Amino acid sequence: MMSYTIVIKTLFGLEDILKSELEDLGILNIEVLNRAVQFQGSLSDVYKCNLYLRTALNVLVKIKSGKISNQNQLYEFVKKVQWWDYFDYKNSISVNSVSNSKQLNHTLFVSQKTKDGIADAFRDKFGLRPSVDTKNPDIKVQVHIIDDFCSLYLDSTGRPLYIRGFDKRIGDASINEVLAAGIIKLSDWNKKDCFYDPMCGSGTFLTEAYMYAANIPAGFFRDDFCFTNWNNYNVEIWTKLHEKAKREIIQPEAMIIGSDIDKDSIKLAKENLFKLSEKNNVKFVHKDFFDTTAPATNGILITNPIYGKRLKTENINNFYKKIGDKLKFEYTGFTAWIISSDLTAIKLIGMKPDKKLQLFNGNLDCRLHKYSIYKGSKKNKA
In which residue ranges of the chain is CATH 3.30.2130.30 found? Predict the structure, then answer.
C-alpha cells in the first residue's frame, strides 16, 4: 500500500488534541508542528482523517518538495510534476500559497506562478489545460515556501473541515466548530455527565457536544471532499468507512442542555440541532444565566460569553464578576470552562483557574479558563 506524507492543519493550541485524535484512529509516529501535525499514512488514512477528525482544518498530501530560490525555479519546479497522475485536465483548480521567503514573499504571485506551471505542464502533454475556479474548485493545490525550500501539496479536504455539512446557520460572533470541538476535548468530558452551555447562542458547543457523544464523525455529512476528484479515488474504501461510521452512531446518554437570554438564539440553536439530528435529545431553556439553577449535581459547563459589543467596559467587568458569583454559589460540583476574547474581563471571574490556555477564535486572541467549583475552599477540598 502506497505511503504518503500527510500534513493536517489545526488551530493554535489544539495540536496535541489533534495528535490524540489521530492516535485514537490507530495512527502513530506523529510529528507535532506549529498549528499542524505530520505523519506517514495511506490513502485510507486520508479518508479517515477527513471523516473523523474534529479538530482538523484541512488534510494535505505532499506530492513534491525541494529547493528553489527564485520565480523561474519555482515555475520549473512546479512544471516538472506529472500532475496528470493526480487529476485530469478537465478538473478545475485553485492554488493557495504560504511563503516565508525574502525572494518569494508575495503569496498571490507565488500562486500565479504555480498555476502557470501546472497549466503549461498539461498544455505541453495534452494540448489542453485545467480551468481556474477560486470559489469551488475540483482540485486544491497548496504551496508552502520556507526560505529556499518549497513543498507542494494536494488538499484532500476542499472547504475547511469546520464546515460540518449539515446546513448549520450561525449567529453573531459564533465560535469556530473546530475550536469548540477542541475545547470539549480539552475538558475531558466523559460523554455521560451533564453538558451545559448557559449562553449557547446559535448552539455550536451543543452541536459539537451532541456529535461527540453520539459518535457522529465531524465529516459525516460532507459529500464535497476534493479527494473524490483525484484519479486514485477509491470509492469502495470510502463507502466502507462511511457505512462503518453510520453503524456506530448512538443516542447520547448524557443530558445536554443549552440556555440563552435571547429567544432568537434559542430558536436558531434548536433549528441547528434539528438539522443535525431530528431525534436529538438536547434540551433548551429560554432564560438569563443569572436566573438559572444548576441542571444537575455535577457536570461540565462550557460557554463563550458574547457581551463585548453590547455592554460598556464597566458593565462587562461587572458581568464577568456576576458570572463568577453565580458559579461559586449555585454550580458547585460542576467544572466550568469559559473562553473569552476580553482578556481583562475574564480575570474578574473571581476564582483562581485550574488552567489558563491561549487559543484563537479566528483572529481573536482568547483565553480559556478552567474552574473546578467546590463547596468551601480548594484547601478544604484537598
Answer: 4-155
